[in-house]
Every structure is written in structure tokens, then in C-alpha cells.
Amino acid sequence: MFTGLSAFPLTPMNETGIDEMALVQLLKRLASARVDSIGVLGSTGSYVYLNREERLRVTQLAIEYAEGIPIMIGISALRTRDVLQLAEDAQKAGANAVLLAPVSYQQLTDDEVFSLYETVTKSLSIPLCVYDNPSTTQFRFSDHLHGHIARLPIVHSIKIPGVPDFDSAKQRVEQLRAHIPKDVSIGTSGDPYAVVGLTAGCEAWYSVLGGLYPDICISITRAALGGNSVNAERQSAFLAPLWQMFQKYGSLRVVATIAEIQGLINNPSLPLPLKSLDGVARQELGNILADLQLEIPLC
Amino acid sequence: MFTGLSAFPLTPMNETGIDEMALVQLLKRLASARVDSIGVLGSTGSYVYLNREERLRVTQLAIEYAEGIPIMIGISALRTRDVLQLAEDAQKAGANAVLLAPVSYQQLTDDEVFSLYETVTKSLSIPLCVYDNPSTTQFRFSDHLHGHIARLPIVHSIKIPGVPDFDSAKQRVEQLRAHIPKDVSIGTSGDPYAVVGLTAGCEAWYSVLGGLYPDICISITRAALGGNSVNAERQSAFLAPLWQMFQKYGSLRVVATIAEIQGLINNPSLPLPLKSLDGVARQELGNILADLQLEIPLC
């Protein structure tokens, strides 16, 4: 399940709770598009803002509405104690895999991060994907540490940050590959650089936009992994105005605003203090959507 | 209460819960030393790793054992919803003030951070101290934003990061002072630079070491604020080996390890994945403590 397009949907919510109806609609779109896997409660799913009960509910809904598509559940938390509880909840609910980032407040040491993964993997029997995202966790993995963690029994994939250009991405993938077992896949994130990552040797795209527009993201993934990089690049270039908005405002605020504008979810949809775009930025995004005319099939 | 030495004690804990007996001993030391205020559930109090019930319990114990010394409670959380609950808990329990940092996972905008402070201050009637600590929150305040927030009714102080040298600290304090109301105090953190901050115009020292060794930290604060900067510098220089350990391993790990070595708290005392120092680093710290011969009066 750690190859192809892994789509990360939003968890629509307001200050009173999760909008379960809207979440189910987003999940149905992904099931209907037949993405390769669904990653709920990733950064795009605002996992870190939800409590244990809410995270369990999202997990249950994802499994219920996935129509057999493999489900990966984000189990990250600041404290190991909480990660272990979330891991147990995900496994009991029937998740196919879990995603774990070394979320930090106090800066973590390599030894502390390794112990976290060692402890959590010992408690699990389903596969784990290592979530490497320094922009949110403030933790930077060395390749040595990646190699050490990737040799733990149930580690099957590493989700790496995007690299902007092909040569750097190829070098990054080759360097990391030299440190980890052959059967551990490398998946790229950072949607604007997904095609670069896939053509440079990543086996999966852990995708934000794929959680909202699965069809075009599947098409890009198939082209890139099938050796048709020109086609993949052309499709990604078509989405360039969205990638620019991602870089300016953060991908979460942008996809939440798109989903609000398209009427897929209500406004507000993000946990305060986070807000979706308003004013000029929202207008700009509306204009981009009108230009691109991306399909929003209703489920 | 936002002047002088504000001492931030550890919250000793293990994976099963808070060590209340050990916490009470730490609180009694501070009450006995007559620090100017006590800041529980700051970064040194590991607030972010505790759940709501645990934070309420620490709050109640602090108020019970403070012997009338003003108590400030850290109410920070990633989500506004949770901050509001913690603010209510602190106020109901009888706290004298609260401390609020813009903790982030997704990078926050200035507008989001202002709205957070606006919402929380509207819900409170006790004073609030703004906690500016980019190394843990990943949020950098502009002076304009500080000024905007400092004009909210119940904001009484700003806890700023330490600045290493006197000229930069003086410039920093003067620049910030130009943006905020006269009655909002500025307090320094970053213990190694406390004397620099106090002699450069800060009215308070929000202190990590003060939570463990209140006597020498009171003495340093009195000297620095009383115009005897040579004496303050001499005392701070005496502690230089500890400041070097703070910079190398993080102040939280170092004070936790000191308290463990001195038998004030049990080992482990930090929430996993965080660990106190072991091996060579612990040995080095033990040697420093033996050299310094800092008093640990038993309460």
C-alpha cells in the first residue's frame, strides 16, 4: 500500500466538533476515484488539533467508507504515552497502516526519536510509515537515523519532504536509499514537487491535493511512475497557480478554502487559531479555480 | 507580580502520571525562598505533554502550596478550544495570572495569533503574560504584533527570549518598549542571559534555574535590578558551567537531571520521548554540581 497515490483528506470541523457528513463526502470521493491508499489524520487532516475520541471517530469513518482502499492513520502526538494509545485505537479499529512523525515542542535528540519509534513499533503489528516533515515537527532526520529506524520490523515506508529540482531529488532519494532496506518505500510530499519526486525514484506520492482532487492526482502519479514524465509534468504545470498558493499560504489553508468555495465543506472548516483564506487571497483562489475548471463530481 | 524573579518549577512525572509529592517539595522550596512569583506549567513544567486533568491538578497544588506567592499558570495549547478550557480551569482554581504562547504545528499567521490572544483575553479577568519563545513555538512575533496584543486589556507582561549581549539586549528592550503600553512589563528568559536582560531594562526574570535553586537566582535578580550589575554578573559567571550545559542539552533536560541527581525527584522525571541526561553527560553534570556545591535545603 506504500506505492502510487496516497490521498490525504481534510478533517472538516468547527469549534463544536467534526463535520462527519462532510468528512464522509470527502472519503467517498476518494473511494470512488480508486486512489491507491487514503491517509487520514495527516497534517491535512489536522490530527494534532483533535482529541483521542475525535481521532478514533475519524478512523472509524475512514475504514467504514473506504470501500476496501487501504487506510493509513496518523498516530503522532507530542507524548509517547499518547502515541501508544492512538496506535492501539487505530489497530483495533482495523487500520491497514499508521503514520508517525516525531512531533516536538522541546527539540528532540536522535536517541529520543529512535526510542519513540522502537517503543511504538513493538506495540504494533500493522505497517508503519515514518513521517519526515521538519516544517511542522521541527525535527531533522539524519540519514543514519532514518536507516536505523527503517530497519525496525514493521517500518515499510518513509514520507519525505519535497525537493524542488530533479537533480537534488535524485541525489536525495539515492542517498536515503543507501541507508534503508530495499523493501522500505520512499514517498514524496510537498505537492508542487511531486512529479520531481516521483520521476527521481520515489514510489509514492503522499498528497494533499489528492485528498480533494483525486482524479488529476491519480493521472499525474500514473504518468510519472509509468515513465511518461513529460505528461506528468504538463499536468503538474497546469496546476501551477494552485502550487503557488500552497507556497504562499500553506497547503492546508488552501485546500480547506477550495473545499469551502466548492461547497464540499462548510466555512469555517479549520480548528482555531487556524483560519481558511479570506479577503483578497480567497478571491484570488476563487479566480484560479474558475480558470482551471477542475471537476468536482458529487458523490 | 510581573517583576523580579519568577521561578518556573519542573513537573516531575513518569509514564503513569505526575509525582505529586515531588512537585509539592519543589513548590515548598520556592515558597520558602520567597520568590516574587511562581510560573507553573511553563516549558520547564512540561505543560504541553500533560492532559487537561493533569494540568488542573498541578494548578491546584501550586495554589495550595505557594504560601501566598502569586501563581502564574501556563494555558498554552495548539487549539484555541483547549486554551479556553485551560484558561477557565486556571481562573476558577484561583490563579493570579496566566501565561500564553502561540504554540503551533501549522505555521501561524499574525492575524491568527492576534485572534487567539483577543479571544482568550475576552474570556479572562486575571492578568495575562505573552510568552514569546520561537524555539519551542516556531512563531516569531513582530514588534507591531507585540504592540497590538499588548494593548489588549488584561495583558500585563511579555516574556521575551534571551539576548546574548548587553548592547543587543538594550536595543531589543528599547525597540519593544516603543511599541507597547508603559504598564506592560518585559521579562527575560534564557537563563544564561538573564543578567544581560535585567541590566538592559527587563523588569522580570522568568527563570528555569530559579525553579530549582531559588536563592542564588533571587540574589542575582536583586543585584541586577538594584543597580549592582557587577555583583549580578559575578554570580551568573559562577554558574557558567551550568549555562554551558543548558546550551548543549536544553535547560529542561539539565534541570531535570540536576533534580534527579540531588534526589529531589525520581528518575525518570520527564515525559517520554524526552529523557534526562545519561552516560557521560550525566557524569559531567554531576561533576559540575560537586564543584559548585550549590545548596539544596530540604523543605
How many distinct domains of chain A?
A: 1
**Assembly state (oligomeric):** homodimer
Give average pLDDT of chain A, whole number.
97
| Biggest sheet strand line-up of chain A | 1-4-5-6-7-8-9-10
Query: Which fold name is given in CATH as the topology of chain A?
Result: TIM Barrel
**What's the number of helices of chain A?**
13
Going by CATH, the homologous superfamily of chain A would be: Aldolase class I
Keywords (chains A, B): Lyase
Family (chains A, B): Belongs to the DapA family.
Protein name (chains A, B): Dihydrodipicolinate synthase family protein
Properties at a glance:
homodimer, 10 strands, alpha/beta, TIM Barrel, eight-stranded parallel β-barrel, 299 residues, 13 helices
Any overview of this molecule?
Chains A, B: Keywords: Lyase. Chains A, B: It comes from Paenibacillus helianthi. Chains A, B: Belongs to the DapA family. Two copies of one chain form a homodimer. Chain A has 299 residues and is α/β, with parallel strands linked by helices. The first copy, chain A, has one domain: Alpha-Beta Barrel (TIM Barrel), CATH 3.20.20.70. Chain A has 13 helices and ten strands. Chain A has helices at 20-33, 52-65, 80-93, 110-122, 134-137, 143-150, 166-177, 194-199, 214-225, 229-238, 240-249, 251-261, 279-292, and strands at residues 4-7, 13-14, 17-18, 37-40, 71-74, 97-100, 128-131, 155-160, 185-188, 204-207. In chain A, the strands form two sheets. In chain A, strands 1-4-5-6-7-8-9-10 form an eight-stranded parallel barrel, surrounded by four helices. A two-stranded antiparallel sheet of chain A has the order 2-3. The two termini of chain A are 24 Å apart. The interface between A and B is medium-sized, with 32 and 32 residues.
